[in-house]
């Protein structure tokens, strides 16, 4: 370590220190000659207390002392640039006020100004004597340390030069790529690279760097990048690389409704600060508008009363940070730039699918919502034709009734609006329109629920439209995730989903359909859950989607990883590793919306099943799309297996936390559609926070605070997503979310100093001479005030604590001795956001010289051991962390994952048990926290260990027991696998001949399992190691296999296939109590010698299914609430073999009660009410043959499992199962309560062919209803429970999820609203929103306000029918037909639900519609004379405004045909009438007696007979017209 005497010792050096200084010189000088050192020149500068040699507080040497530089008007392009130049540092990166100066050190110098071209700081204009710094702050400057850009136009452009041996060298273009450029731009405080080219900014005059950079793109500094020797040691002229970075994204305009208008804010020292000024407002505004790409300045408005630091610009600067700044508080500045309005969109629509001559069409202009009002001017560049319309809902539609050649040409939309006392306009792109002749051809309509993307920039982007009942409708925004987008992209044969947003604003009255959800694995969009009839889109927007067009990543873990496939002739081909390099990967990652490439390797994600791409990509790395890259023919036309290239991209940098003083704390914002938007939520805040912290690499979630008053679009996550964009989201404005992550504090620094020359750098690190004083200094970057530093000495329990002053603390040691040798670390602690955070420095290893000690390597970091146990494989878990063994604090742990890894590392056997160890002693409460393991890690340190050491919650450590000498491997769980025993610290398999039932009993008992169930050679493979050479002779009662006797094997060979495999039953450590049956009751787990209650807050379905399975019971019938006992927490996925394989924690959670069926279950189905039927036979489960199971049997099973009526019954519907088949035939009557109550008979045929194991789908139980809302789809929620209907309540945050489940279960579409005001209180229900029925949700008997739900399918479907009074309607082959010239009436009607409303009669053959109010719930539409224009499809749409929302429901289609001349049919009909009349008269004459009285009483006039005859004809006509028209006729009569 080099010691600077004059910089590390105060100028007023005490006289008695001079001998010590001379002594130090004598120690360090080989020729014992003292050197004469001149003091610094007057006005020399230095930077102190920074994180690098090129950052820190500015100090100037003035009259024999170093003085701070007081804040004044400073420019990063002038003053800071000169300072960095004098110190031989790189570009100026930032300038600010440093930390508050300590008492007594407030004096400083004042710098007037620099021109920027001075070589030394003293050449600037420094005025005045030292004085007290205003505000008690000093200037603080950061320069880049090892790289700069020279000869460019600003701070962010120039020739790249790097520091080499204190001189600067240019870099050859061949040694510098896009990833290197990203790091350099970041290092110097600029934005992303914009241009990279040799010779762009000249050659330079010095040497050339002789290395090749190998940056990954994510490093903070160029010094952090790897380098390699250059392949060629020459760099030809013109190849010195030049770089242009974009300007930093550190300026914004807020509160003006546009990114180009508002108050000016500057991102400075981790927060957004208001910018103020007193003069040169126009110059500053010009710089702001230029930096934001917002055009020129239109106005600079006064009146911003916020006061902040001052900025002064000349107007020619590239960015605001190049201007002068001061920390005087000045009035805030509001700027209006010329490009205020976003570019409008222009789109073409028509009713016939194309613009053909004589057909009508519509051109729609629209813009994003910014300001109300405005107008659209539609211009036609082929002529002077212009049309103007006011903007309604930010759009306008221009209708053209009949296309002709005069309409052909280029159109554009100009949006005008008068805002901020100025007129603004913005013009769309051109729409080129061609008029064509109509080619009449028969085209089949698209399939129902087909999808397309329209009005996008590519064929794989645009507004989503769904073909629904004969028309293309937009998709209304609801909760959507990348799962839904993935299905859409797949159907359209596009690549990966890139983004999803709301598209341009649509005009009033544009209906759309609503998608509920996709699972993500569907092939077609129509296979998703599409609910509800078309309605008006909330907010007036449609979904907009962007998929990659020519490339996709498949078979990866998320959107940003997978095998690279490119589109070739509409099919997808994998790419050979040899044809794809880092530059190609950069383009692909960008194309699919991800970050920089992280891994690139052949075979990484499998081979794929199709063809291989036959070209070689030659991307430069800066292309936007893979289609933009050049390609060349492949040199070798073969691609060997295992070489299909796999790519892992980093997650996109589209999430940030703002306003929390740290990148790991603050309000959540998401970069969406070109701007940062607030993220809001009502529920699952912890899941969202977990994803945010994970994506930002900020550790785990500490807290997720509500109360952010900024409202943002809604996001909902499960918590397992890789990035926030994989979550579901909606555009409802919800309360903003504030997140605090665990890695809040940056890592502190630790360094060693002395004032006597006793410190020097040895081979193993710093060394101190015995008897010399030394100081260990702890420091951290300024984030939050206060805090303290704990200096730990890992070789003993000695610690020292000091408060942090100016973010640092110095620990003085007066005389070094042997006790000081060891490892030191600084732990910085601070209470922020009502939580304690800590961060530990790296270790400082200190050696005291002349100490003769043997060097012993310490354990590897994060090694593990078990201590204080009964064997070497049991005990308390301890982890070696930064030089000391720390206990492992209890957290959520799984025996199948975390414990399994620990046993593996210690070369122990199977995990047997995991628990809390004994209470730890006082003063030893510190421990580490393990986040999670996957279970396949070889070492514990490969798991995810988060957070610094802290005090263990509850005062306990983890305690683990592994088997010591035996294990089961390659099995399905903890209790099955090939038997292996430990021999000389390695594992050997056991021959079947040497292992019997008694040996198996001991092994199963030692591993914590039940009795042996299967024992067979080769059952779980052979293994790859040696074979055990002994024969076990256990008696079956031993506790451990080591306790058993052994004997030499008679035959020393073990033939292949004889390595013994063992299956033990699951342990009998779970029971259900208090339910009157072994298959019902509260869940208890036998743990540490006693039965303990099992609790849970979520995943109750998974735990219940597992408990029922482990106990040999049937399916889960219900998970009722009300268990007031609290137990330790358990969390299961549902796939575990037993409860002990689940994760658990020792937090006390509400107890869990489970009811299972006893003799029947449904397995491998999608819910509780579907699956393959299995019945219990001799304590095992068997499938049932389809021939032995009918509808009545199904009714009993559905009833026993608490489901509704049978919906589907079919052999092979849910697979075959792997066991035997039931040998009886059920003979249920359908009214039995249990399947056990049904009669059975022997099966006639004793075989059941494959594919006949019966599968059953029951409908959802009819146990939920909505009451008091006038419809079965609206009202207060009630649940049928324990023989009565009970009110359901929910917490405010969960009401939407519960409502979604209710609407889904009732078949009522999606949720429209959850109105407040239900004063009835009911038991609490909590849902995730994805459940199939309400009974799958969690519930408790806490009384909460009742829940009222309004679903989208509120209105019943209306009826439509046709009537006439002239006999012109008859039933044809294709439906009702109407004679030309006859009048007819179409009647719309609906069941009485709500008063009022109206009927819209739509005619799909044209744009004609008619509307009438609903009178007595119906409306009649009269057509006076039928002609060909009336032929087509009609439907009735009933609209009504109910519950403050508009609802609509559409009838079925009525297809009407207009026939030719009706004369033949007219004649035939009237001949029939005359014949009927004649027959009636004859019959009456013969029947009636000729008495006068009878004639008077029974006289039948000819008119009566005619009426009767006409009624008969009418009945005949009604029979022809069908049921709809018949109902109409009855209504008319």
Question: Which key terms come to mind for this protein?
Answer:
1533 residues; globular; 17 helices; single chain; 8-stranded mixed β-sheet; mainly beta
Task: Explain the overall architecture.
With 1533 residues, this protein is mainly β. It contains 17 helices and 105 strands. Strands 4, 16, 17, 18, 19, 20, 21 and 22 form an 8-stranded mixed beta sheet that branches. α14 (1463-1487) packs across α16. The protein is globular.
Report, as a whole number of angstroms, the end-to-end distance.
110 Å
Question: What would the average pLDDT be, to the nearest integer?
Answer: 78
Task: State the assembly state of the protein chains.
Answer: single chain
Using only CA atoms, what is the Rg?
A: 41 Å
Helix content: 10-25%
Q: Helical segment tally?
A: 17
Strand content: 35-45%
From the helix content, strand content and strand pairing, which structural class follows? mainly beta
User: Quick one: overall form?
Assistant: globular
Strand segment count = 105
The main sheet comes to:
8 strands, mixed
Describe the SSE topology.
Blueprint: H1 5-8, H2 18-28, E1 45-49, E2 55-62, E3 65-69, E4 74-75, H3 79-86, E5 92-100, E6 107-113, E7 125-132, E8 137-143, E9 147-150, E10 157-164, E11 167-170, H4 178-187, E12 193-198, E13 211-214, E14 226-229, E15 241-245, E16 251-258, E17 261-268, E18 271-276, H5 281-292, E19 297-301, E20 307-312, E21 324-331, E22 334-337, E23 345-349, E24 361-366, E25 375-380, E26 386-390, E27 395-400, E28 409-419, E29 422-427, E30 431-433, E31 451-454, E32 461-468, E33 471-475, H6 482-491, E34 497-505, E35 511-517, E36 529-536, E37 541-547, E38 551-554, E39 561-568, E40 571-574, H7 582-591, E41 597-602, E42 615-618, E43 630-633, E44 645-649, E45 655-662, E46 665-672, E47 675-680, H8 685-695, E48 701-716, E49 728-741, E50 749-753, E51 759-762, E52 765-768, E53 774-779, E54 788-793, E55 799-803, E56 808-813, E57 822-832, E58 835-840, E59 844-848, E60 864-867, E61 874-881, E62 884-888, E63 893-894, H9 898-905, E64 911-916, E65 926-932, E66 944-951, E67 958-962, E68 966-969, E69 976-983, E70 986-989, H10 997-1006, ...
Parallel strand pairs: 3-6, 18-20, 33-35, 47-48, 52-59, 62-65, 77-79, 91-93, 98-105
Antiparallel strand pairs: 1-2, 2-3, 2-8, 4-21, 5-8, 6-7, 9-10, 10-11, 10-15, 12-15, 13-14, 16-17, 17-18, 17-22, 19-22, 20-21, 23-24, 24-27, 25-26, 25-28, 28-29, 28-30, 31-32, 32-33, 32-37, 34-37, 35-36, 38-39, 39-40, 39-44, 41-44, 42-43, 45-46, 46-47, 46-49, 48-49, 50-53, 51-52, 53-56, 54-55, ...
Helix pairs in contact: 14-16
